[in-house]
Design brief:
Elements lengths: L9 E2 H12 L3 H17 L2 E2 L3 H17 L5 H13 L2 E3 L13 E3 L3
Parallel strand pairs: 1-2, 3-4
Helix pairs in contact: 1-2, 3-4
């Protein structure tokens, strides 16, 4: 789903989401998840939540409230990160990002 000429990065909140998966697992699964997270952090830039992302987050919060279709807090932060930085959300959960203004989404069909 990520092309060779894409410029992938992850939102800081994604680090927390992956970290929870590490901390809640045990044994081999924990080891594998920790290794995956370490690889992600060594490979991809992490985009911090700053003023520009907060402004995009505000716009998305208002849009989903006005539409009467609430979304998960972390998904909105990920979407705001993509919107503010001109990136595309790459996800296996396209429905969580449907119809968000100014947010491009790439999901499997």
């Amino acid at each position: 789903m990520i092309a060779d000429d894409d410029d992938p990065a992850i939102a800081a909140i994604t680090v927390a989401e992956l970290g929870v998966g590490v901390e809640l697992s045990t044994g081999r699964r924990r080891t594998n998840r920790r290794a995956f997270l370490d690889d992600v952090l060594a490979t991809l830039p992490v985009i911090d939540y700053g003023i520009e992302i907060a402004s995009a987050h505000t716009a998305l919060l208002v849009a989903v409230r006005n539409a009467g279709r609430p979304r998960g807090a972390h998904d909105l932060i990920i979407a705001a990160t993509a919107r503010a930085t001109g990136r595309t959300v790459v996800t296996s959960d396209g429905a969580g990002f449907d119809d968000l203004p100014g947010v491009l989404v790439r999901a499997p069909r």
